[in-house]
From TrEMBL:
Membrane topology according to the record: Multi-pass membrane protein
Name of protein: Ferric reductase-like transmembrane domain-containing protein
Keywords, in A-Z order: Iron, Membrane, Transmembrane, Transmembrane helix, Transport
Organism encoding this protein: Parasphingorhabdus flavimaris
Residues spanning the membrane: 12-29, 49-66, 78-96, 108-128, 148-164, 170-189
Lineage of source species: Bacteria, Pseudomonadati, Pseudomonadota, Alphaproteobacteria, Sphingomonadales
């Protein structure tokens, strides 16, 4: 049982989240992979972990109190921080690939580029405040701040669509999130209407 608890601990979970990054950095340092080839996978992992962190709330509304939901809830901030971490790795490989400041500035205002910078900028306060101390100090404001993730998601989607020729990959990742969020809204709206109807009938 102790072994199972250790395997299910947050440190082990963080190691699992880090494995793709470790493999990518190792491949780059070994000379097997160039920086340009790391842009797409690091960006994808950042988007994936962000989406996973975001779908936990609608899943909890849809399925209610389940053990696997509680397990994901405890790791939601880890998913969010992993998204930020892979976003930073994406930025690092981008800077390495561009080699100098001049070409970075030259393409900065291209729609596919500034949306990526903006998404990462929105992620910064979310990552910085993703700790218990910030939750206690910010109180209700913490939840409002964390809702900026929806803006980050829209910017990430725009960045992905504008950078790549095909839309299939971006839509395959973001459509499930959109559907779950819509279902969440429908369920909450239905519950409120039922509650209002019940009160009116009393």
């Amino acid at each position: 049982m102790k072994i199972l608890r250790k395997l299910n601990s947050l440190p082990v979970f963080w190691i699992l989240l880090s494995i793709p990054a470790i493999l990518m950095v190792r491949g780059y340092l070994a000379g097997d992979i160039i920086a340009m080839d790391m842009l797409h996978p690091t960006g994808e992992f950042s988007a994936r972990f962000m989406i996973v962190a975001m779908i936990i709330t609608p899943l909890s509304v849809i399925f209610g109190n389940r053990q696997w939901i509680a397990w994901m809830m405890k790791r939601r901030r880890s998913f969010g921080l992993a998204a930020f971490g892979y976003g930073m790795l994406h930025l690092i490989f981008y800077i390495i690939d561009m080699e100098a400041l001049e070409p970075i500035l030259a393409e900065f205002w291209a729609p596919g580029i500034w949306t990526g910078w903006a998404a990462l900028l929105v992620f910064v306060p979310l990552a910085v405040t993703s700790n218990n101390l910030s939750m206690r100090r910010l109180k209700q404001s913490w939840k409002h701040l964390q809702r900026l993730v929806y803006i980050a998601a829209l910017l990430t989607l725009a960045h992905w669509l504008l950078i790549h020729d095909g839309v299939g990959g971006a839509l395959a990742h973001f459509i499930p999130l959109l559907l779950l969020e819509l279902l969440r809204v429908i369920i909450i709206y239905g519950r409120r209407n039922n509650g209002l109807t019940q009160r009116e009938s009393l």
